[in-house]
Hints:
By secondary structure, the chain is an alpha+beta fold. Helices cover about 25% and strands about 25% of the residues. It is built from 20 helices and 29 strands. The strands form seven sheets. It has a seven-stranded mixed β-sheet, sandwiched between helices. The protein has a six-stranded mixed β-sheet with strand order 9-17-16-15-10-29. Strands 18-26-27-28 form a four-stranded mixed β-sheet, sandwiched between helices.
Amino acid sequence: xxxxEHKFKVIGTRPIRHDGVDKxxxxxxxxxxxxLPGMLHAKVLRSPHAHARIKSIDVSAAxxxxxxxxxxxxxxxxxxxxxxxxxxxxVVNPRYLSMNIMARDKVLYDGHAVAAVAATSPHxxxxxxxxxxxxxxxxxxxxxxxxxMQDDAPILLPExxxxxxxxxxxxxxxxxxxxxxxxxDLEAGxxxxxxxxxxxxxxxxxxxxxxxPHNAVAQYNADGHGTIWVSTQGPFSVRELCSHILQMPLxxxxxxxxxxxxxxxxxxxVYLEPLALLLAKKTGRPVKMVMSRAEVLRATGPTSxxxxxxxxxxxxxGKITAAQVWMAYEAGAFPGSPVGAGCMTILAPYALENLQxxxxxxxxxxxxxxxxxxxxxxxxxxxxxxxxxxxAEKLGIDPLEFRRRNGAKEGTAQPAGPQFRRIGYIxxxxxIMNSEHYRxxxxxxxxxxxxxxxxxxxxxxxGFQSTAIVSINSDGTANVVTGSPxxxxxxxxxxxxxxxxxxxxxxEVNPVVTDTESIGHTDVTGGSRVTFATxxxxxxxxxxxxxxxxxxxxxxxxxxxxxxxxQDGVVxxxxxxxxxxxxxxxxxxxxxxxxxxxxxxxxxxxxxxxGFATHVVDIAVDPETGKVDILRYTAAQDVGKAVHPxxxxxxxxxxxxxxxxxxxxxxxxxDENGIMRNTGFxxxxxxxxxxxxxxxxxxVEVPNPGHPLGIRGVGEVPIVPPPAAIANALxxxxxxxxxxxxxxxxxxxxxxxxxxxAPQ
Length: 760
C-alpha cells in the first residue's frame, strides 16, 4: 500500500500534540522528578585543572562524615580493553568513555570527574566532596587545535596513534585520525579557474544549551538486575554503554526514559548513569544524581571548535572548477570529533568534478565532544558558504544564482562518493530567490549599517534500527508503542502515521514511548531519524495490523482475506452480501474472530533522504558597539513530506535560533590555564526571544523515494546555514569578511574600526 499516491487525510494536518497537556500542566515526569523510597543523593568531585597527573586520592575523611554511604573513584570501575564500535550516530570507544566518566591516572580537562559520593542528602554529599584530598602534578595544557598537532605538543593519551594514515607510525600523537575524500584533477581544476578564493576560518567550541541538566536515578537489586531512570535520547544506548563500562550483562539492565528537556545530540551518551548504578550496587539503595548548570558546561559534551582552510576556484561563467579543504576539529580529551561528518557535508550542496578534503580529529584539554545538531556541518558550512559568497561577488553573479548553477541534483556525486537520489536542493535555492523576503528592499535603520546574506546547508540524515507496536483497542482506537524518546514532536508524528494507515483521527491514536524491556531495540533519537525510521516501523506495524483486521473480518464473513478491502477505517467485502464494518464495529468483535490485533515491525531502513536548506537573513550593525540585530530571517528547506507542519516549522525555527547564537555570541571561553570562565547562562550567552525576529519558513516538499510516505529528516539541517548567512550579511553591511566564530560585538566593532583606519 503506497500512500504517497493517495490524498492524505491526517498527514499534513496540525492536530494538538498528544503529550501537550501533561507538559503544560506539569504532570510530565522529567529525570530529576523521579524519587524512590530510601533514595540517596550523589555528587561528583571534579578536577580544578585542565591537565594534571593524579598522584593520590584520600577519601577517608569523606567516608567518615555522618550520612555518607559510599565513595567511588576510577579504581572502582573495571579496566576495559581498547577498541571502538559504531553505536547509532556515534563511534564509541568504551575504554575512553569510562575514562571520561571517571578519571584514572590523569585528569584531561577542567571539570573531569575524579570521585563521587553518595549520601543521605545532596548537601551532605557536597560537604563530603570538600573532604576528599587529591594530590595533583600539574601538566601543561593543550588548548589550540593547531598547537595540539605539533610534534612538540604535550601528549594527552600516550597510547594514541593516528589512524587513517597511509604510513603507520608508532609515535605518540594528539592526532587521533585523519580522513581524505578526493576526486578529479585538483591542479587542472584550479588552472581552469578565472577566480580563486582562499580563506582560513576558526570556530569556538559551543554547547547544545538544553534547558534540562543531565540526571540519573539508579536502583540495583540483590538478584543482579538494575534499573536506570534518565533523561536521554537513547535508552538502548544507555543500557549498552552501562553494560560495557560496568561489565554487567546487557539483559540485567533496564533503562526507563523520562521526558527530555532538550538534547540536540548532547544526551546521546552517558556521564552519570554508570556512576549512579555503581553507587546503588555499593550501597544497596537507590541513588539519584543531577548536574548543576556549571557541571553541564564544564563536563559534558559540547561540539567541536575547528580550524578550516578552504580554497575554491570558478570560471567567469560561474562554474566551480575545483575545491580544496583542510580541516582540524577539536575532539576534546578523547578521540571522536565530528570531523568525518564535516568532510562529508562541506561541499555536498554542489556538483564538483575536482575536490580534495582532508580532515583531522585532534585531542586537547577540553571536554570530550558530543553530537550537536548536524554535528560538524555548521563549522564546515561557515567556511565553504563564505568562500562561495566571495566567489559569486568577485564574478558579479547573484549569490543564489551562483548556487543554482552549481547545485547538486539527482545523480550528483557526494564528496564521499555515492550519488544522490531524488533531492530538493535547487528547489530550496529557488524558493528563497522567489521569496517575498529576498525580493524586497533592505530596510533602512537610522544609525545602523544593514546587510543581507544567504547561505545553504546539507545534512545526510540517518536511518538505523527501530521497532514499533500498533495495537487495536476494543473501542476502535489504537495504541502506538515505540522506543524513541520524543524531542521534537515525534510522538504526534508516529500517531499520525498510524492514524493515516488505519483510517482514524490523530486523536484516536495513543502514542507511548516505553522502556528497554517493553519494546525491541531502537537506536538513538538523533541523526534526524525518528520520523523517518521509527515512523517507517509504525507504518509497517500499522500495515501489519490492517492485514490482521482483514483476516478477522474474513473469519466473521467466512470469506478469504484477499476478498476483504480495508480503506479509510472501513472493512468491506468485494463479494456483495456483507455490510461494511467500521474499525470500531470490527474491534468490538475481535475476541470471537481470532483474538486481539497487534501489529509489529522492526526495521533498518536504507532509503534515507538527505536534507538541504537555503537561508536569507537581514541584519543591522551598530558600528560603534559591534552589536548585530537580526531584522528578518527566512529559511527554505526540503522536508520531504511534512507529517505535522507545525513541528517541522518549529524544528526549522529552533535550528535557526541555535545557529544565530553560534554565529553571534556562543563560545567556550578558557583562560591560559585551561579553566573555563563562562560556566553559566549569564556568561555563556544563548539567544533569548529579545534577540530573534519571527523566523519565517518555507517548506519545500520533494518526497524521499526511500520512504513509503516520502519522509526525510528535518531536525538538523536548519542549524547549518545561519553562521555563514550572517557572516555574508555582515560583509554586505560593514565591508569586512568575518572568518571567526562567534562574530561577537567586540570582534565586529574591531573589524569596523580597522576598516575605517585603513587607507581607502
